[in-house]
Each structure stands twice: as structure tokens, then as C-alpha cells.
Specification:
Strand order of the largest sheet: 4-3-7-6-5
CATH architecture of the largest domain: 2-Layer Sandwich
Order of helices and strands: HHHEEHHEEHHEEEH
Strand content: 15-25%
Oligomer: single chain
CATH class of the largest domain: Alpha Beta
Number of domains: 2
CATH superfamily of the largest domain: GAF domain
Helix content: 40-55%
Largest sheet: 5 strands, antiparallel
CATH topology of the largest domain: Beta-Lactamase
Distance between the termini: 50 Å
Length: about 220
């Protein structure tokens, strides 16, 4: 088999993930080094990357363990379970705030829209499911890019770059008419921020947006 085009660093990361996941009680760095026969410094970089991605965590006992996000990710019905978990809070936002709530997550280099709940009102925002937008122009996209800077387009404007950096600090992001004229969207993580974590975006026609409405959204999400 031709191997020159293979990403051997990816193989090492997958091997490390396999070693950690096989240890129900977690493993110390020395144990993982002994099993994988890799330099300690290289393995720490790999594990730190897996921690950043959300698949691995390092406890106070200095043991590395796989996270619940990793266990959910490897299940075939993960998207269905996310929808089932967050449908009620999305429905509550649609009913109490009167705006559409959208559930999404990063998949590859795009935001995958899993589900949406619409309000019963005359003027509605067109649901995003089945439509594509530039990731850097979306509220959820900016959140994802704050954790995956390698996906930020080289041509991104400085103002957008600043927004992505701010999203990494605050945990929320805005889309003010960037993907669609006349639409305001506010996005936030639904779980601890990580590239594989689900996100929610609430969208308004710009004439209907208010800080009070956003405050109601935040209050509802605070009950999770």
C-alpha cells in the first residue's frame, strides 16, 4: 500500500485515543508513553490536542480519560440524541421569545444544522436546514472557528477575525446580516465549549430584535 500520502500524525492521535479509551480508570502519561513507545513531549502534544477537541480530559489525579463527548460522538445516533436532548428548550425559546431556535454542530468544515423550532408568527426567518453559508459569516460558525483556528479562511476580514477571537473569550457570537440581509442571529454553546460540542442560534428579523428578547433567551438557556 502506498503510504507517502498518509497523515501519520493522525494515526498517532487515533492510537493515543484508543489507548486512553481502553483504560476505564484513565492512564498517567508515563503509562501511555510506555504502551505507545513515543517521545513524552510528542505524546503530550497529541493528548493536549485531543483535550482541546473535547475527546480527552486530564483529571486532578493527572490521569487522562476519554470524555462523555467522545462516547456520544462514536455512537451512530448522536445527532438524534442531541435533537432529543435540546428540542424542549428550543421549543420554549420559540414559544416564549417568539423567534426561531436552531441546533447545530461543526461537521468537517461546515456547520451542520440538526434541527430547528419555529414560532407561530406572521413574519418568519427562513430555516437554514438544507442551505449553505460561509462559516465565518454565521454566529455558530464564529463559535466553531474560535476553537478551530485552522479552519479560518485566509481572506477573512480583520473585523471578523476580531469577532472570532471575542467568541473564544465570551462563549457567544453574532451574525448581523452577514449571511442574510435583515437577519440578526446570536449563537452560544449548549455544552462546555469544544469543536465537537452542540451549539444553538436564535434568529430575529432585524426590526424585531431587542436586548430584552436576548435576555429572555439567556434566561431560558441558564435553566439547562
Amino acid at each position: 500500500m502506498e503510504t507517502r500520502g498518509l497523515a501519520t500524525s493522525l494515526f498517532k492521535a487515533l492510537d493515543a485515543l484508543g489507548v486512553v479509551s481502553a483504560r476505564s480508570g484513565g492512564g498517567r502519561i508515563g503509562d501511555i508513553v510506555d504502551e505507545m513507545q513515543l517521545p513524552r513531549s510528542s505524546l503530550i502534544r497529541i493528548l493536549d490536542s485531543l483535550i482541546h477537541y473535547g475527546f480527552v480530559e486530564r483529571g486532578d489525579d493527572k490521569r487522562y480519560r476519554v470524555t462523555s463527548k467522545f462516547r456520544d460522538w462514536r455512537l451512530a445516533d448522536r445527532d438524534e440524541r442531541l435533537v432529543e436532548t435540546y428540542r424542549a428548550v428550543m421549543r420554549r425559546i420559540a414559544d416564549e421569545v417568539g423567534e426561531m431556535a436552531v441546533l447545530g454542530r461543526l461537521r468537517g468544515r461546515q456547520i451542520h444544522h440538526l434541527h430547528y423550532e419555529e414560532p407561530d408568527c406572521r413574519v418568519r426567518v427562513t430555516p437554514p436546514v438544507g442551505r449553505s453559508f460561509a462559516i465565518e459569516k454565521m454566529a455558530m460558525g464564529k463559535l466553531a472557528l474560535s476553537k478551530r483556528p485552522d479552519l479560518v479562511p485566509d481572506s477573512v476580514a480583520q473585523a471578523t477575525s476580531d469577532e472570532i477571537e471575542a467568541a473564544g473569550r465570551t462563549g457567544y457570537a453574532w451574525n448581523r446580516g452577514e449571511s442574510e440581509d435583515g437577519i440578526v442571529a446570536w449563537g452560544s454553546w449548549l455544552e462546555e465549549d469544544a469543536p465537537i460540542a452542540p451549539m444553538i442560534a436564535v434568529t430575529w428579523p432585524d426590526f424585531r430584535y431587542s436586548d430584552e428578547a436576548l435576555g429572555r433567551v439567556k434566561s431560558i438557556l441558564a435553566t439547562l
